[in-house]
Write a structure and sequence with these properties.
With 365 residues, the protein is α/β, with parallel strands linked by helices. It has a single domain, classed as Rossmann fold (3-Layer(aba) Sandwich). The chain is built from 15 helices and eight strands. β7, α12 and β8 form a beta-alpha-beta unit. The longest helix has 21 residues. The two termini are 33 Å apart.
Amino acid sequence: MNDVVPGYANFDEILFSPAYAAECLEISTRALRSFEDEEGVEVRRKSRGTVSARVYTPADLFKIASIRRSKGLTRTLHRPLILSTFIQKGGTAKTTTSVNFAMYLGFKGLRVLVVDNDPQGDATSMFGYDPDLTEEEVIEAGLSADRFVKGSLGNVIGISSLFPAMPLADVVKKPFGEFGPHLLPAEIGLEDMEIALSAANNADFRYAHFFNKGRKGELKQADLSCYDVILIDNAPSGSLMTRNSMVASDMVLCPIRMDKFSCRALERLAGRLNTFAEEYQRCPQVAAIPTMFVKNRPRAIAHIAKISEMFPGNVTDSKLFQSEDYGKALEVGLPLLAWQSASENSAGALRQVFGELLDRLLEIR
């Protein structure tokens, strides 16, 4: 389940069967078919011998999810929310959680912006963009010119001369079309964000100030008012960038492996959040997510008990199990929830965990 560098997939050529498409949207195949018949949603047909079968791209599903929302068939949040994925420990599936949770929320009809706040750009890569390639290299690789990453959060904020100001529309990526998750990518220049933030006034609040104004539609270059959820993916380090993310957030998602080092990292986070409450008079909620869980292993069960004691009521009942599916999906360039070969042990577990998280988000006012 560790994050790996993905290949390059053409998302327009990813075709889901009606059964899998309905499973992604968590509706019946009959309800799925009704959107084709009643709403005029055009889907492709794939020939199988003499029979033509309906197939759906991920973009089709996000469009259908948007229609379902407009008809009042999905649940909506009380207000727009900002989430961060963070724990000061590598290899806990933070980026895997961020990317797939964005997919899940999109299938529920919510508009999501993923912000890659890690100079390594793993979330950017998982969505099919290589932050290290030049525009010429992207084209030489046979990819669409749109796969070229030409800016980051730093440019949209325009925080210093290190980041030439760019409008959100010129930086944002839409890997699954208008209705799917959008991405504010990372690229190598994002490494300078630490320098830019440290030189700024109210350094810990620059992200919060930017996101709050953007969500109110007060920034001409970065109107964020259309998004229900802004999900920030962080590096596993206690940097000024990470602190900005957490100060801005309503909830911190903490994927945690069942080992003593990850539990120790969660203990450090608990201490950090206490400091947050004292320094900023606010503190994000926490959702701890057990990852790479192995059933019936006494040590794993003991770690669950320990983190439940640290964060009572804030550990998901469902768990993400150890599975080769995560690596296999990324090898072909797909988030797990867009990989039709995923098993119930992986994709099913993700949906259960994310269902719990969505229930919590729906309670925030």
